[in-house]
């Protein structure tokens, strides 16, 4: 089949694309930024790419001869007040374009919406589902609750909580019931629905075999990890305080924490159907999904992460527009050093951050991360998706990878921390020298004051970092 897939750089779509390619389907992948094409599928002979923004799409951008399309565009992390209108507009534009093709089926992944008091994000997903319905093609909707897999938001947040807190004083929403579903099962449903006419113009709740509270999920997660944890719930934490609690304890952004708390107050219990007969599957238990996720992590083969999404409010346009360092109106710290072993230096550069740290004065980097958290930033807890591999769009602590090419021997990072301006950090090897450039473009007087406040630390932090990148211990 010839399949159109949206949200290609997202958590679900990146994994689904790999599975569909294994099944020998031809893929047309939609991306907003051509520089963020995932390396895993970039060179695949059955895969091609369309640069398109469904909020302002160009007409005739989608090939006419597609058979099926996946709509996998959704963001819980946005802080836009009008995100519901934006999501509806995005879905409507997608529908208009697909209706002009030969597409017979659109498959949409939504959320379970059976509770009477839905969160605004679940209401938005239901609204998108209504928008996507068409007389020109058949719509198949899968509604999932908590998705469990390496790199998923729920998995990583629970992991943060369980591994950091032996004793937890938690909000009352931990007693809310849900039906977690493993990511492998989600992909089985999505791929198994292709061309199945019995599923046309129908929606199905998809869920795991257990009904668990969030508290039970935390305790079962701890069992899988061989940890003993004690959890006490209090009825006094308001949604606002709960959001701050989740934000400071875990690696999530505050916007995502707010959205999750809003959603976690709602019971997510699926309605039974005959979907497991149409798609031969017996969904795995929560513990099994957690165990498989850790197998992925131990093998360093996490394909995608919720942290791959660019932080809301930082990039209003494409990453590629930021890959050239600004020249004017900037403060700069530029250093160079003759390299001894090029392969060693490249590996050091590509391994920077995350568990490896920043090679020099890591305590100061951590302190900067804590300060960033206090002011509503992302902090250092996001780490990195892979220990030794980077591509454009990856998170790297409180940086975002703009450009990563080992052949060109260049890595460029853009700061997503809270700053009174914009900051870049570049590593580049030219001939036998490593050039390390920190560039800051201040915003107003506060930006200039900020630069001079941190300037004394640059002398030893950046010097120590370039030395560690060049000199084997």
TrEMBL record:
Residues of the signal sequence? none
**Which Pfam families would you find in this protein's record?**
DUF2867, Epimerase
- InterPro entries found in the cross-reference section: DUF2867, Epimerase_deHydtase, NAD(P)-bd_dom_sf
Identify the domain of life. Answer: Bacteria
Report the SUPFAM superfamilies cross-referenced here. Answer: NAD(P)-binding Rossmann-fold domains
Indicate the segments forming the NAD-dependent epimerase/dehydratase domain, all copies: 3-100
Name the UniProt record assigns to this protein: SDR family oxidoreductase
User: Source species, please?
Assistant: Winogradskyella vincentii
The uppermost taxa in this organism's lineage are: Bacteria, Pseudomonadati, Bacteroidota, Flavobacteriia, Flavobacteriales
């Amino acid at each position: 089949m010839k399949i159109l897939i949206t949200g290609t750089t997202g958590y679900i779509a990146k994994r689904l694309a790999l599975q569909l390619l294994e099944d020998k389907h031809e893929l047309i992948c939609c991306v907003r930024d051509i520089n963020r094409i995932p390396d895993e599928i970039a060179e695949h002979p059955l895969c091609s790419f369309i640069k398109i923004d469904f909020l302002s799409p160009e007409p005739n951008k989608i090939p006419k001869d597609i058979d099926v399309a996946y709509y996998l565009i959704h963001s819980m992390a946005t802080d836009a007040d009008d995100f519901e209108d934006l999501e509806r507009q995005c879905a409507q534009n997608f529908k208009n374009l697909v209706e002009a093709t030969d597409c017979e089926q659109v498959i949409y992944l939504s959320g379970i919406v059976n509770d009477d008091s839905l969160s605004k994000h679940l209401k938005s997903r239901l609204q998108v589902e209504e928008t996507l319905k068409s007389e020109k093609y058949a719509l198949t909707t899968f509604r999932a609750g908590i998705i469990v897999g390496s790199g998923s938001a729920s998995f990583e947040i629970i992991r943060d909580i369980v591994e950091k807190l032996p004793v937890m004083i938690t909000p009352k929403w931990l007693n809310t019931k849900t039906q977690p579903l493993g990511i492998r099962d989600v992909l089985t449903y999505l791929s198994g629905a292709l061309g199945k006419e019995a599923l046309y113009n129908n929606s199905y709740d998809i869920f795991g075999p257990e009904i668990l509270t969030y508290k039970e999920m935390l305790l079962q997660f701890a069992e899988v990890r061989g940890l003993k944890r004690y959890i006490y719930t209090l009825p006094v934490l308001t949604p606002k305080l709960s959001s701050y609690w989740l934000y400071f304890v875990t690696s999530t952004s505050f916007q995502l924490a707010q959205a999750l708390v809003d959603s976690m107050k709602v019971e997510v219990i699926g309605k039974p159907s005959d979907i497991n007969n149409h798609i031969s599957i017996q969904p795995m238990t929560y513990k099994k999904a957690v165990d498989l996720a850790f197998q992925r992590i131990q093998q360093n083969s996490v394909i995608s992460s919720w942290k791959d999404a660019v932080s809301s409010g930082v990039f209003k346009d494409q990453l590629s527009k930021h890959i050239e360092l600004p020249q004017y109106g900037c403060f700069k710290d530029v250093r160079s050093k003759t390299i001894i072993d090029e392969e060693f230096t490249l590996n050091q550069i590509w391994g920077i951050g995350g568990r490896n740290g920043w090679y020099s004065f890591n305590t100061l980097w951590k302190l900067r991360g804590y300060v960033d958290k206090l002011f509503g930033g992302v902090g250092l807890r996001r780490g990195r998706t892979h220990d030794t591999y980077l591509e454009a769009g990856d998170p790297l602590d409180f940086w975002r990878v703009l450009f990563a090419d080992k052949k060109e021997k260049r890595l460029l990072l853009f700061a997503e921390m809270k700053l009174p301006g914009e900051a870049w950090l570049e590593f580049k090897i030219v001939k036998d020298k490593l050039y390390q450039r920190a560039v800051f473009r201040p915003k107003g007087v506060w930006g200039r004051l900020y630069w001079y406040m941190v300037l004394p630390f640059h002398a030893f932090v950046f010097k120590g970092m370039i030395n560690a990148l060049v000199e084997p211990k």
